[in-house]
Design goal:
Number of strands: 20
Distance between the termini: 25 Å
Low-confidence stretches: 267-278
Mean pLDDT: 93
Structural class: alpha+beta
Number of helices: 9
Shape: elongated
Length: about 375
């Protein structure tokens, strides 16, 4: 608990993680890690040598940065005070992800304090810039020069085994019209009407997109809406919306075809002019981020579940993350990837963020079992 509170008390917005990285490294060295250092990317990386040379390493991954705490007045407990109340530690980053990082570090320390050595090498890798794209994770993955068998992510999973998450496909959909003075709408072809009709039809149509049996359905959220002009007395020449798709089943080409079909002229088209001479929308790929997936019957998942069940007294539930993680940057390493931590998903990125101390103790026992027996 003391380690978590110290980490939370150390602000570490993305790009400003140096102080918390040093804290993490110092704690690893204090607990007897064979090696711990801040690497060239700013990541805090520690390692304990296993008693066998054959098996690939077990990697415990977390990140050092957190999102902006926002308006201080929204917090019952100051965001960097790490106050304890109602069995929880409060503060920005407590759940996402400093509490889980403290558990990872101290699980290794507990095994060493008992005079034991893990069977395989254990690496704790706390990376920078997770909240802004994962630059630290990518840098660490590029530098790996040893085999890895399993990577355990510390992202919030409520002490359940997370098997992966959907990828992200963000597409700009642009409707072109004809600009005119707003006082003469009859001379314009206002693209806002076509965009409005498209968005009105989108929720029902999206229900027909395919679902992954474990990672869940494809979803879409319209986020940013733009037009070409900032003048309030001008009918825009074009209007566009950014669609944020989360999917484990649909390719960018699939989604472009879905958009084209939804925008196709027909009975749903708004206005006779659009029906007679529709201007087809243009879908442009803005951002594509892959997800990751480890099947529930993978041998590593079965072994993790066995060890966690032994530590907690019950079989852990398998889930999928709803959000993206650095796990997507590790898929080329050839290792199984799962998530396991005490933090609850609904605590991430919110005011009054907190983590349950009781759940951290359960997670600590589970991580000790993983470090000592996996």
């Amino acid at each position: 608990m003391a380690c978590t509170r110290q980490l939370v008390r150390t602000p570490s917005m993305s790009g400003r993680e140096a102080a918390v990285a040093r804290l993490a490294v110092d704690e690893m060295l204090r607990l007897g890690f064979d090696d711990a250092r801040v690497d060239d990317a700013g990541n805090a990386v520690g390692r304990v040598r296993g008693r066998e040379r054959g098996p690939g390493a077990l990697v415990l991954n977390a990140h050092l940065d957190h999102v902006d705490p926002g308006e201080p007045g929204l917090w019952r407990h100051p965001p960097y005070a790490a106050e304890v109340a109602d069995g929880r530690i409060y503060g920005r980053g407590a759940a996402d992800i400093k509490g889980p990082l403290a558990v990872q570090i101290h699980a290794v320390g507990a095994v060493l304090a008992a005079g034991l050595r893990p069977r395989r090498d254990v690496v704790v890798c706390a990376v920078v810039d997770e909240e802004v794209g994962g630059g630290g994770a990518k840098a660490w993955a590029r530098g790996v020069d040893y085999p890895i068998d399993l990577i355990v992510l510390g992202e919030p999973s409520d002490n359940k085994i997370a098997l992966g998450h959907r990828g992200i496909r963000q597409l700009w959909v642009t409707f072109h019209g004809r600009s005119a003075h707003a006082s003469a709408p009859e001379r314009a072809r206002n693209p806002n009407y076509a965009l409005a009709g498209f968005l009105d039809r989108l929720p029902a149509a999206a229900e027909r997109l395919r679902a992954h049996p474990v990672l869940g359905p494809t979803t879409v959220s319209p986020t940013v809406v733009e037009v070409d002009t900032k003048s309030p007395n001008v009918t825009p020449a074009w209007a566009r919306v950014l669609l944020d798709f989360r999917t484990a089943t649909e390719s960018t080409a699939d989604l472009c075809a879905f958009i084209a079909a939804l925008a196709r002229p027909g009975p749903h088209t708004i206005g006779d002019a659009w029906a007679e001479d529709p201007l087809a929308p243009v879908a442009a790929d803005s951002r594509a981020i892959n997800g990751f997936y480890t099947p529930p019957d993978h041998p590593a998942v079965l072994r993790v579940a066995e060890l966690l069940a032994g530590a907690a007294g019950r079989e852990p539930e398998r889930i999928a993350y709803r959000f993206a993680t650095d796990g997507r940057h590790f898929t080329d390493l050839g290792a199984a990837i799962v998530g396991y931590s005490a933090a609850e998903e609904e605590q991430a990125h919110v005011a009054n963020e907190s983590i349950s101390i009781a759940k951290m103790l359960v997670s600590l026992r589970g991580h000790v079992a993983l470090v000592s027996q996996y």
